[in-house]
Specification:
single chain, alpha/beta, Aspartate Aminotransferase, domain 2, Aspartate Aminotransferase, domain 1, 2 domains, seven-stranded mixed β-sheet, five-stranded mixed β-sheet, 15 helices, binds pyridoxal-5'-phosphate
């Protein structure tokens, strides 16, 4: 492999949309123009001595696709360049990225401070599974920085949040929370799934680690699962060792899909954002809609912070309808085009009732604390004409 990617790895030399197309392109002996898909579980050696040198890490190179694969490496280099991270570790899913991060960095007795407004499975991972292994989590407000400093204990090792949050689109002040984390000595991880590096770069704002569910916008067309952990090499050493040993690895095929997805990420995020803003403005004018949550609207409680921290409001719009669960389900069941699915970040607009789907396994207390009411609906705005999305929603809204 010739490493034509080297010149694109340097921080800040190129815009993220350029890096999305050009970084992480390593060509094989055939000089292919498009990134090659290497479907092989293992790699061969020229001699016993070379095998030995590879295994003890004296000679760089691939051994086995549980730890490295050239197609996965291209994806990792490309996303690392876009996020401004020294290293990227690709994983099988977004949840395995979060799990790998915790398993690699924490031990029994450690403490996490996490936002209360997290993806449902992340809440269950922290509050349930990690707790079984002696790692405790204190859940705090996504928006009140003082709760983060008040929650710190001597054994606090990790701060974790997502911004904008799912599904309420609350905005956490990354730079302010980074300062609190730094003072306490804890590492600070941001799940950047909703914004992607096109709209927001948490490492530049002071975060130590960025998490991705590549399943969402990085793919962008709802095809495959994947995730990533990004940060500097020293911080992520334990995460890499966990991945190498335990194997929650990204498949080469999925990495190839993500490489192609990244190439159109900028134009897709711009289009998702423009559609979402137009739809949010329209929803605000509908009589049965009690409130619309979209960071790009001036009515959003953290609009000013959002516009400082992100390039646009993103592609997710949530709104609360009068009449609780019955009314919310009626909107969903009256649609003819929108996809009734919990996935997001797709070209196809998706419509979800968080209280009974993504957050259905959380306790009613957890849902109430996170502000997920029975009348709340989440739209992940796709790339269809906004007028067609409006027609599909209006039927149930006005019924
Ligand atoms: C979907 C999602 C995850 C989990 O990712 P998977 O790829 O489904 O495992 C984590 N965080 C956020 C914000 C998500 O939307």
């Amino acid at each position: 492999m010739s490493e034509s990617s080297r010149q694109f790895g340097t921080k800040n030399l190129y815009r993220p949309e350029t890096l999305a197309v050009r970084a992480g392109t390593a060509r094989s002996q055939f000089n292919e123009h498009s990134e090659a898909l290497f479907l092989t579980s293992s790699f061969t050696f020229d001699s016993a001595a070379q095998a030995a040198a590879r295994f003890i890490g004296e000679e760089p190179g691939n051994i086995y696709s549980r730890f490295t694969n050239p197609t996965v490496t291209m994806f990792e280099e490309r996303l690392a360049a876009m996020e401004g991270g020294e290293q990227c570790i690709a994983t099988a899913s977004g949840m395995s990225a979060i799990l790998s991060c915790c398993m690699g960095l924490l031990k029994s007795g450690d403490h996490i401070v996490a936002s209360r407004s997290l993806f449902g499975a992340t809440v269950n991972l922290f509050g349930g599974i990690l707790k079984k292994f002696g790692i405790e989590t204190t859940f705090v407000s996504a928006t009140d920085v003082s709760e983060w400093s008040d929650a710190i204990r001597p054994e606090t090792r990790l701060f974790f949040l997502e911004t904008p949050s799912n599904p309420l689109t609350e905005i956490s002040d990354i730079a302010a929370i980074a300062l609190v984390a730094k003072k306490s000595g804890a590492l600070f991880a941001v799940d950047n799934c909703f914004c992607t590096p096109i709209l927001q770069q948490p490492l530049a704002l002071g975060a130590d680690i960025v998490i991705h569910s590549a399943t969402k916008y990085l793919d962008g067309q709802g095809r495959v699962l994947g995730g990533a952990v990004l940060g500097n090499k020293k911080t992520l050493e334990g995460v890499y060792q966990f991945l190498r040993t335990a194997g929650p690895t990204m498949s080469a095929f999925n990495a190839w899909v993500f490489l192609k997805g990244l190439e159109t990420l900028k134009i897709r995020m711009d289009a998702h954002s423009a559609n979402a803003l137009e739809l949010a403005r329209w929803l605000e004018q509908q009589p049965n809609v009690m409130r619309v949550l979209y960071p790009g609207l001036p009515s959003h409680p953290q609009h000013v912070l959002a516009m400082k921290q992100q390039k646009t409001g993103g592609g997710i719009v949530s709104f609360e309808i009068e009449g609780g669960r019955e009314a919310a389900w009626r909107v969903i069941d009256s649609t003819r085009m929108l996809s009734i699915t919990a996935n997001l970040g797709d070209t196809k607009t998706t419509l979800t009732h968080p209280a009974t789907t993504t957050h259905g396994r959380n306790t009613p207390e957890q849902r109430a604390a996170a502000g997920i009411t029975e009348g709340l609906l989440r739209i992940a705005v796709g790339l269809e004409a906004v007028s067609d999305i409006q027609i599909d929603l209006a039927r149930g809204l006005n019924g």
